[in-house]
Each structure stands twice: as structure tokens, then as C-alpha cells.
Amino acid sequence: MTGAFAIAQNTIREVVRQRMVLVLALFGVALVAASQVLSPIALGEGRKVVTDFGLAGSSLLATLLAVMLGSNLLHKELERRTIYAVMAKPIRRSEFLLGKFMGLWVTSAALVAGMTAMVLALLSIVYRDTPWLLLGSLTLTVVELGVITAVVVFFSSFTTPALTAFFAMATIVAGHFADDLLYFATQGASPWITRTTEAVYWLLPHLELFNVRGQVVHGIAVAPERLAFGAAYGLLYMIALLVAAGAIFERREFR
Amino acid sequence: MTLLRGRGGLFAALVASGIFLAGAGMLQRSYRTQQGGRPADELLYYPSGIWVRQAALGYETVAADIAWLRAIQYYGEHRLNDQRYDMIGHVMGIVTELDPRFTEAYVFGAFVLAQELRQPQRGLELLERGMRANPESWRLAFETGFLHYVGTKNYQAAARYFTRASRLPGHPEYVERFAAFTNQRAGNRGMAILLWKRIEASGNKYMQDVARRELKRLEATEGI
Amino acid sequence: MSTFRDTLKTQGPGPASDRSIHAVPALPLLRLESLRKTYRDPMTLKPFMAVRDVTLELERGEIFGLLGPNGAGKTTTIKMLLGLVRPSGGRVLIDGREPSDPDSRRKLGYLPENPCFYDHLTPLEYLDLSGALFGIARQVRQRRANDLLERLGLASHARKPLRKFSKGMTQRVGLAQALINEPTLLILDEPMSGLDPIGRAEVKALLREQRARGVTVLMSSHVLAETESICNRVGILKDGALAEVGAVSALLASGVREWEIAVDRLPDAVVATLLEAGHATERIGARTLVRVADGEALQRMLRTLVDSGVFIHSVEARRETLEEHFVRVLGRPERGEAVS
Fold first, then answer.
1. What pLDDT, in 10s, does the model give residues B45-89?
2. How far apart are CA A114 and CA C210, in angstroms?
3. Residues ≥6 apart with Cβ < 8 Å to C290
4. How much is the ipTM here?
5. Which of A185, B18, B113, C92 has the highest Cβ tally under 10 A?
6. pTM of the model as a whole
7. What subunits touch chain A, counting only 3 or more CB pairs under 8 A?
8. How far apart are CA B120 and CA B98, in angstroms?
């Protein structure tokens, strides 16, 4: 396992030294600042606007980071053959993959946490109110990012960067529609369609489970059960994907 | 992890993967049944609201904010020009579909519909939707009472809603006074003045303007 | 013939036949048994045998050169040793372990061909990562990293990102990361590539140092002259199969081309006689070189010359260079048999 941590640390270094992260971070700062600028014309809803933009923006930017950087992570190693010297050390393929996953997750989580901290600071200064319950939303968003990162790592274990990004985005979008899919399943014409739709439903990540932004912005704290269930579901889903990805990667030949 | 090598290993890994996935699924199902499934009124929004909500992909409240900002701009622009606010009901409808807890949107929307478009019934419908989504909101109940009083002049309904508001948590002290007054003397001009004065003191700037206009009108009818 | 063989001895431990004197009952460090790899063309599905039935054992403390032209299967064989590629048949044992066990690489150092390392890191950071992957404690690996960079002449570049390094410098970083865990088995794929003669000499010195410490080295190379001077044994791969294996001296002893007798003042008449008899002569300045093809003829020639009163300067066996041997072996239409 120490191998995985070493790879994770290196992945963080690698990701952070890339220009895209800087761009995304700056974007984040700009977003929070802009939302504050908009607040006078929000007719008294300035605090809501800043919070909404901050939470949604951080989630979106971190997701973009995970998908765009994550989709190329493995491929770059294989392409440039940097992986050869690494795999010649006493580290398993699955450890390597796990390290990549952890490094990417930590980085995107840091982005989201940083932006949320900025929002909290801004609200404290301008509105003299620190809505600590935003941290509940942050927790679930971090878990959501873990799930998204696992999806990216899973696809990248066997396909090209472009396809990885595409499949990951598709899974994320479908993940948000998952609940509706279930509704449509019940409207299904034939039992065969219902079964297939249900199967797809259970395979997709139920990302709406992690979305509590709508309530925290209105001052409603996240229930502990929601946090616990969300974390547990997310972790199980991540493990499922990483186990599969590890097994797939274990079989890859480095030509 | 050496278990994962070989063809049998791949199968085992997929099975293990499937088990974790199944575990995740079962966990979520149990959570949902625990939460009693989806709230009933959400299904009511399905036919009309479905695409707006889904298109927002998890960022509904931001989408609501953006729609809100545009609605404000729309109102502000038309206020300076033709004073026609035909779209306000539709836009506020979208805002509240995206963010059902957005109290101010229901209130402002109903206000404009009643006072500017002279369609208090539509305003009341908007507030009704708001109250269904937020049954614990004293504000929405109160504003409904207010609209009944100054809009439709249905003093009995006003009294009912003021009373309801006075029983909901977090209400300020004046709610009880208004409830008491309307219950005792329905149809009182003095009451109407008090209600408008409240808006003049604490509404958003547009509502304050309207309040001042109404107060002037009411003061002019004194003695008639 | 032993006296001539003495003059042909390479540096380092003696040829394979001396093995019995130092009989060590320990496990061979590296063992390949009937190793095979077949690739299938993804388009046509035609099979291609990259490595056929390679059987080889490396002794502890020897430097073994794996030679062969491009596409002979050297890199594929090495990849199978490291677990980067799975054999289609046969097996590999590193100190008794199979490559699928990551622990087989705990005391292994590897330098890939045309190495590429994480560009965004400095050599110190990269060596720290490598050391961490071996589970070496932070203090220890930092100390070793500094020592290695010093030893390889990279101390002044220790904090520059690797993306700024030349090929030769990268090669040296590669050696450093291969040595960070103080390995007992070194696997080097084209270690001399990209290095100037000084660089190559340094690498050779380093390898001799490692050998003196008891490290076993497997190196693949194109640069035959270099290989010749430091390898104990070589194996020649041809079309995926081992055409020959043996100590350099043994391989080349069997390929003595001819002997050259350098003499002074050979009278023209004698030259004419020699030419008539079918021997080649060559005049170089005041000397004449007489070439004799086999041992028998050599004895007669020497007697003849001595009896003629000719002053004999030197007698040299002009054996094949490894390069000539290599070309000859690979030119053979059939697979050669392993020697040893």
C-alpha cells in the first residue's frame, strides 16, 4: 500500500503542476467574486446568489478537473513509457491505479474545499453570517467527486482518453437522470423494457443523492442519515469500480 | 490481489465488483424507503417541470438564481418603459420549479401579478404552490393573507391565512396582531394601511414603491 | 592451444569452465525456462513468435550480455522478466519467484531502453519516489539519492526538472533509479545508448564496481565492442531464439580466423614461395605479415621461417571480433546450437 500512496503523492504533484489546474482555480476565484458583484441587483437575495454560485461552481469546476485530467492520466504514462520504470518496482498494477485515483480525488476535493472556504469567508465578512451547514454539502460533494473520479479511472483502464472523457461525461449526465429513469421504468410498456431500465438504473451512479445544495442554501441542515448513507453508497460504488478497473489493468500488456 | 490473476480471477473480480454494486444499490433502496420515497407534490410538477429541472443537471438552485436575476431585470426594464409585465408569472413559475424553496420568488411573483397585472387570482395560485412545497413557511401563509386583504378583498380568507401564519414556527410578533385584527374587524381600512406600512418598512425596493403608491391612494380616500 | 587462449582472456572472472572451481550450491538468481511469447496481429490474427523457447540461467555475480539485432526479442524477453508482459509459455524465476509476484522485484534494478521519466520532477524527487516504491525509509533513500547523483556526476543538476535533461543525463538518472534499492540483479536495456565514449567508460566502470560487489547484471546491447570488454558471458538472440550462449572467450576461441606471423626482412624469393604455396603475405613497412590458416600449417611455417634464419617478431592469433562472430552466427541459415 505504501506504493499506492507514493503514486498518489506523485499524481498530486503532477496534476497541480499543470496549467489547467491554475486556470480552474482562478476561474473559481473569479466566479465567487463575480457573484458578489451581482448581489446588489439580486433584490436582497445576494447571499443566496453567492452561496449558490459558489457551491455549484466549485462542484462543476472540480468535476471538469476530474474528467479532463483524469481521462489522460493513464494514457500519458503508457504513451510516454514512464510507467515502465515504475512497474519494474515491487508495486502491483492495482496499487498503481489506486494511487492515481487517490491523487486525482484529493486534488479535485481540494479545489472544491478551497472554493467553499472562500464562500464561507465572503459570507462571514459581507453578511456577518457563517453558514457552517455548507460543510454538509461540501462533504457530499467530495464523496460525489470520488465517485466521478472512480468512473473516470474505470474507463481509462481500458480505453482512450477521448472515449474515457466521453463515457465519463455520459455516465455523469445519466447519473443525474437516474431517478427519472426509474420513474420511466414503471411506465414501461413491456416487462423486458422495465427490467432493462431498472438494470441500467442500478448500474448508474445516483448522483442526485449527493446534491443537497438546494436545501443548505435555504438554511436547512443536511440530515446525518443523508450524510451517512451518501458516504456509504459512494464508497461502495467507488470500491466496485476500482476493483473492476484494477482487475482490467492487471491484465494489460505493456507492449 | 494475487487472487485476481488468471481467467478465474477476472471472473471473481467482476463478481466482487457486482457484489459491491449490489450493496450500494440495496443501501440506497433502503434509504429511499426510509425517507418515504419522493414527496408526493413533486410528481405534480412532472408534466411541466420535467425538462427544466433535468436540464439543470444538479445545479437547479443556480439556474433558479439566474432566472431570478433575469426576472428582476425584466421587471426593472418594463417599469421604466411600458409597465407591462406579462411574462413575470411564467418566469417566476420557472424559478420556483427549479428551486421550490425560493420563498421570495413566490412572494414577489404573486405581488406583481396582483398589483401590476391586476390578476390576483394568478398571484394566489403561485402562492398556493409555494405553500404546498413549503408547508412550514409562515411567510407564504402571511403573504397569501395579505393578498386576500388588499387584492381580492376576501377578508375571511385573509383572516384564515393570517391565523395559519401565526401558528407556524419563526413568525414575527406582528403576525399575531394582524391575525387578531382581521378576525375581529374584517374590512377595516385602517388594517389595510397597517399592512401596507409594513411593506413600506420591510419589502424590497420595488414593493416599497408600490406600498407608497397604495398608501397615498388610501389616505386620499379618508373621510369618504 | 592453451597458451594462445591465455592471450585471449577477457578481464574479470574466468570463462564458464572455471565454474566448477567456485561451485556454489545457491539458487541461480535468474532462470528462464523454455520462455515463449507469441503475439497476434490484431488485424490479421496472424501469430508472430517474438520469443521462442529461451532457456537460460544467470550465475550470481556475472555480467551477461544479451545480444541480437533489432526485433530479435531482447526487449520482449526483458519485459517478461519484469512482469510487463505475460509469457505465452515457459516461466521465469527471479531468485525463486515469478514476475507476477511484485516481491520478485524488491532487489531488482531496471533501466529501460530510451528511458523517459516524470518530466515534472527533479532527479531528487524522482529518486525519492523510486525509493518510496521500494519501501525504503525516507532518510535512507534521501541519502542514497544524493550519493548516487554525486557518483553519476549529476549533483549540480539535482534540483532541475527532468524535462530539461539531455539524453545522456537522463540515462544517468536512469542508472541512479536502477541502483536506489542496492539491487542484487540489474537489468539494463541498452545502457550505453546515447552516451559519448567517456560516458560509456563511466558506465562500464560502474558495472565492474557492481560486479565486484556481487551484483548480477543482465544487459542487452548493440554496442558489441563494449559488451565484449565487460561481459562474462553473452547470449545471441536470433529471431526470438538463443542461437548461442557462452563466455566471450570460449565463443571466439572457436572462431580463430588465422594466425599472423610478423617477420623482418623476408627475402623476396621466400615471399614468392609462400605465395605459391597459397599463403597470404602483406608488407607493412619493413615488416611482412604472413597469414596462416590453421594450427598444423602454423607449426610448419614457423619451423620453415626459423630454419631460414628469419627474425620472427610476433605470432598473433587473429581471432574473430565479437562483431564478426555475431554477423557470422546471424548469417547462418539454420538455428545454431547453444554452446555451453
1. 333 455 677 677 788 899 899 889 888 888 888 888 888 888 888
2. 50
3. C260, C261, C263, C266, C274, C279, C280, C281, C301, C305
4. 0.86
5. B113
6. 0.80
7. B, C
8. 23
